[in-house]
Design brief:
The complex is a heterodimer of chains A (about 350) and B (about 270). With about 350 residues, chain A is mainly α. Chain A has 2 domains: about 300 residues, ABC transporter involved in vitamin B12 uptake, BtuC (Orthogonal Bundle); about 35 residues, no CATH class. Chain A is about 75% helix and about 5% strand. Chain A has a two-stranded antiparallel ribbon. A two-stranded antiparallel sheet of chain A has the order 2-3. In chain A, strand 2 and strand 3 form a beta hairpin. In chain A, helix 2 packs across helix 10, helix 3 runs antiparallel to helix 4 and helix 10 packs across helix 11. The longest helix of chain A is centred in the middle third of the chain and has 27 residues. The radius of gyration of chain A is 21 Å and the shape is globular. The N terminus and C terminus of chain A are likely disordered. Chain B has about 270 residues and is α/β, with parallel strands linked by helices. In chain B, strands 6-7-8-3-9-10 form a 6-stranded mixed beta sheet, sandwiched between helices. In chain B, strands 2-1-4-5 form a 4-stranded antiparallel beta sheet, covered by helices on one side. In chain B, helix 3 packs across helix 5 and helix 5 packs across helix 6. The longest helix of chain B is centred in the middle third of the chain and has 21 residues. Chain B is globular and about 60 Å long. Classes of the chains: A mainly alpha (about 350), B alpha/beta (about 270). The interface between A and B is large, with 31 and 45 residues.
Chain lengths: ~350, ~270
């Protein structure tokens, strides 16, 4: 086992993996078929959503099972103002940000003093309320939603083709990615880490936890809102079925699968969540079953995520160490299990 | 009753950093602290001692805002801080450590100190998101200040390790560095020597002395008499939530009530 004091070393395959992902992401719009580019764009949407939820779950350590609500509010805001007020795409972004930020405060305030299990229930309820409201209000178009949403434009350029939508999504992802990375190494990021690790100690260091938890919800909500705005002009039609509880769970899966708190992890997680079901289309009837089994196997093999954050890795090492001890203690027959646990601990 | 003028040195003219007035804390039927009053003078080391369950930590928690006292007032630098939020009390200039060390064990040694600098930095959400030049300059200051405080407690070489990997005595030092990073004028240490070996205790006594020499007033809870008697300017003794003595170390050592509280009543000899 490596000495624990070694700086968090990059796993050997990580640099290669990062290079492959970047090359694919850049080459896809030039060499991919429209279908593949469209899948790529969907990956980008989930990257945006994953990065936003990562602030809430990964950085601040809060739980949110109704995250799709913010995605919906962003999408509906852009759709509503573009269709009914004939606004261009870009001015709807600040409006969407304001609306999602406000809803972040609304959901955040009553939940701040709740422990995580209650938090899960309240956020789940919020997600359902937003979806049901969208299904029943007139201005949201009811179950049919809003359709005929115009395309985004940059000057005379209309962003309609599959590759151009991909690049627009990529621009959104880069902005959100840079913002997330900046937050992680800022005073705000440290405050979140402190609160997540030990709230009383954070207070003793002069941090007011309520404010920073609320800010995590607000920023997470704004990022999801931006993803929603993009989603609206990408599909040009939206309806409540895109914003279900399953959607919230899928976004949560993106970050759990990738590694909570890890930005490369979110990107990988989004890719797996979108690409795997597509790749399994050949299996037709057992497709989603295979997908489910695949996810279970992935989580068993890499419980810390595909590309864990520094902190996730530490956690995992500690767990693996105790696992190894237990396995070694159980029986001689469990020797191979202990070995595999120990090899994980040392990686 | 609470006021015991005979025990109190003439402090009329001395300005106090901290004044605790008739502090009482009740948990349901349990009277944890009863009418405790004392003042802490600038740049002194004042220790609170007493048997287990005497209410020492409760007094600390009331001062630092982690508990709201049932009654009584706490005055810091002339302003009442009773019942204020812990983070606001830190910003007023009172920092603390915990009886059971409460670091952020999975974060870096340097990050622990950086978090202590939170209240002295201003970068808001937008500045952090955009990584503005102002925020970058502030972060550079954070790094410099972190290095300074790690140096002050003697952990300069450990900045990049994890807090959990430090030896026990060094974890205490890191916790003190985090408290000092908030730039307090009063630092409250809750049993800093507990669990330390004699060598570590010696280092701790030195460190506490240097903290006081740097102009920070120290309020100490401690069990270890070798530590307390060596560095305290004054000592307050609590027993069952009641203040039973106050004075210089040598006075305390001779005080009959203190000896009784620690060694038990010696009825036969009375």
């Amino acid at each position: 086992m490596k000495p624990a004091s070694a700086p968090p070393a990059r796993l050997p395959y990580q640099a290669a993996l990062a290079a492959i992902v970047v090359v694919i992401a850049l080459a896809l719009p030039f060499f991919g078929t429209p279908y593949l580019i469209d899948v790529g764009t969907l990956v980008l949407v989930y990257v945006m959503l994953g990065l936003g939820l990562n602030i809430v779950v990964g950085y601040a350590g809060l739980l949110d099972l109704g995250y799709a609500a913010f995605f919906a509010i962003g999408a509906y805001t852009t759709a509503y103002f573009m269709v009914h007020y004939h606004m261009a795409f870009w001015p709807t972004l600040p409006i969407a940000a304001a609306c999602t930020a406000a809803s972040g405060v609304i959901i955040g305030t009553p939940t701040l003093r709740l422990r995580s299990d209650y938090l899960a229930i309240v956020t789940l309820g919020f997600g359902e309320i937003v979806r049901i409201a969208a299904t029943n209000f007139n201005f949201t178009g009811g179950p049919e939603g809003i359709y005929g949403i115009p395309h985004a434009r940059i000057g005379a350029l209309i962003i309609r083709s599959t590759p151009s939508l991909y690049w627009l999504g990529m621009a959104f992802v880069i902005v959100i990615l840079v913002g997330s990375a900046n937050l992680a190494r800022s005073r705000l990021g440290r405050a979140w880490l402190a609160i997540r690790e030990d709230e009383a100690a954070a207070q003793a260091a002069g941090i007011y936890p309520v404010y920073f938890k609320l800010m995590a919800y607000v920023l997470g909500a704004i990022f999801a809102g931006a993803a929603g705005s993009f989603f609206a002009v990408k599909l040009t039609a939206i309806n409540p079925s895109s914003f279900t509880f399953i959607q919230s769970v899928t976004i949560l899966m993106v970050i759990v699968l990738g590694g909570r708190g890890s930005l490369p992890g979110v990107i990988l997680g989004a890719a797996v969540i979108v690409v795997l079901p597509e790749a399994l289309r050949a299996f037709d009837q057992v497709r989603m079953l295979t997908f489910g089994v695949g996810l279970v196997v992935l989580m068993l093999l890499r419980p810390q995520g595909l590309w864990p954050s520094r902190y996730g890795r530490i956690e995992q090492e500690a767990v693996a160490r105790s696992e190894a001890e237990v396995a070694a203690g159980v029986a001689a027959g469990g020797a191979s299990a202990a070995e595999s646990a120990a090899s994980r601990a040392s990686s | 009753m609470t006021a015991q003028p005979s025990l109190r040195p003439p402090t009329v003219e001395t300005p106090s950093v901290l004044g605790v007035e008739r502090l009482t804390m009740r948990f349901g039927g349990l009277l944890a602290v009863s009418e405790v009053s004392f003042t802490v003078r600038p740049r002194e080391i004042l220790s609170i001692i007493g048997p287990n369950g005497a209410g020492k930590t409760t007094v600390f928690n009331c001062i630092t805002g982690f508990l709201r006292p049932t009654s009584g007032r706490i005055i810091f630098e002339g302003l009442e801080i009773t019942g204020l939020r812990p983070d606001l009390i830190v910003r007023r200039g009172i920092a603390r450590t915990f009886q059971m060390i409460r670091l952020f064990p999975d974060l870096g040694v340097d990050e622990n100190v950086m978090i202590g600098l939170h209240g002295r930095t201003r970068a808001g959400t937008l500045a952090s998101l955009l990584h503005t030049p102002l925020q970058r300059r502030e972060e550079k200051w954070v790094l410099d200040e972190t290095r300074r405080w790690l140096g002050f407690v003697g952990l300069e070489g450990r900045a990049h390790g994890l807090a959990r990997e430090l030896a026990y005595g060094n974890q205490r030092r890191l916790e003190i560095a985090r408290a000092l990073a908030t730039a307090p004028r009063l630092v409250i240490l809750d049993e800093p020597a507990s669990g330390m070996n004699p060598a570590e205790k010696g280092g701790l006594v030195q460190l506490v002395g240097r903290i006081r020499d740097s102009g920070v007033t120290v309020l100490l809870i401690e069990h270890d008499m070798s530590v307390v008697m060596g560095i305290s300017d004054r000592i307050i003794v609590l027993d069952h939530g009641v203040q039973i003595a106050e004075g210089a170390p040598d006075e305390i050592q001779r005080d009959a009530r203190v000896i009784e509280a620690y060694l038990g009543r010696e009825d036969l000899q009375e």
